[in-house]
Amino acid sequence: MSGKPDRLAVLVSGRGSNLQALLDAIAGQRLDAGIVGVFSNQPAADALERVAPPLRWSLDAKQCSGRAEFDQRMADAIAERRPDWIVCAGYMRILGDDFVRRFAGRMLNIHPSLLPKYPGLHTHVHAIEAGDTEHGASVHFVNEHLDAGALIAQAVIPIIPGDTPDALAARLLPREHRLLTAVMRLAVAGRLAERNGKAEIDGHCLLQPLRLDCDGSLMP
Ligand code: GAR
């Protein structure tokens, strides 16, 4: 490690509350990192407004000939900022294999389900309709398959009788913020790595994802 704060590139598509959690943690000196760019496939995303204009980058996919061009342009823009970590924080566009391979081992995603349950969209609806008693969020390394990379950590919340998808999502969101911040603390401390498709903490392969406890710490 260089001793300088790790450089984070954050990918967003919408509201940006997870990005805000990272910004707050950095400002509050709970995360030793700097955001070097916020990248979006949605030029109007509220998330972009959370950082100063020089940090914003966006491209409407309609301006591109296809996924390959979009991915190449965004990947080049990200690489220019020399990030240590690429964090998908509410990024809702599928990333192609070349993009994923270019940043392999240093790209993370937060997803609102207890993966491997419910990859993709509408996770809160799926959890309720399945009659689950628990729901949650996961942070994982990104690989070529949707929401399927090596799991690092999860936050679990109960599903309460009468829960609606919106109520469940709202109750989960603050836990997502703590989960993402906690994982990024591990990452910037140099404690997190991916080897052979598995997550490692301090050089030890994780046999199951870490779990966020009530005070925001990650427990085995
Ligand atoms: C979060 O719930 C995040 O887990 C989810 O989008 C929301 C973004 O909220 N991500 C995905 O569904 C990715 N598959 P935010 O923009 O307020 O951070």
Structural shape: globular
Q: Write down the oligomeric state.
A: single chain
Count the helices. How many?
5
Side-by-side strand order of the widest sheet: 3-2-1-4-5-6-7-11-12
How much of the polypeptide forms β-strand, as a percent range? Answer: 25-35%
The CATH class, by name, is: Alpha Beta
Give the helix proportion (percent range): 25-40%
Number of domains: 1
CATH architecture: 3-Layer(aba) Sandwich
Class from secondary-structure proportions: alpha/beta
**Small molecules (ligands, ions, cofactors) in the structure:** glycinamide ribonucleotide
CA radius of gyration is 17 Å
- The separation of the N and C termini measures 25 Å
Largest sheet: 9 strands, mixed
Poorly predicted regions are none
**How many strands appear in the DSSP assignment?**
12
CATH H level: which superfamily? Formyl transferase, N-terminal domain
SSE order, as H and E?
Answer: EHEEHEHEHEEHEEEEE
Explain this structure to me?
The chain is α/β, with parallel strands linked by helices and 220 residues long. It has helices spanning 17-27, 67-80, 97-102, 123-129, 165-188; strands at residues 6-12, 33-40, 56-58, 85-88, 107-111, 134-141, 151-158, 192-195, 198-201, 204-205, 210-212, 218-219. It has a single domain (6-219), classed as 3-Layer(aba) Sandwich (Rossmann fold), CATH 3.40.50.170. The strands form two sheets. Strands 3-2-1-4-5-6-7-11-12 form a nine-stranded mixed sheet, with helices on both faces. A three-stranded antiparallel sheet has the order 8-9-10. A hairpin with a 2-residue loop joins β9 and β10 (204-205). The protein is globular, with a radius of gyration of 17 Å. The structure holds glycinamide ribonucleotide (GAR). Residues 14-18, 47, 89-90, 92, 110-112, 137, 176 line the site of glycinamide ribonucleotide.
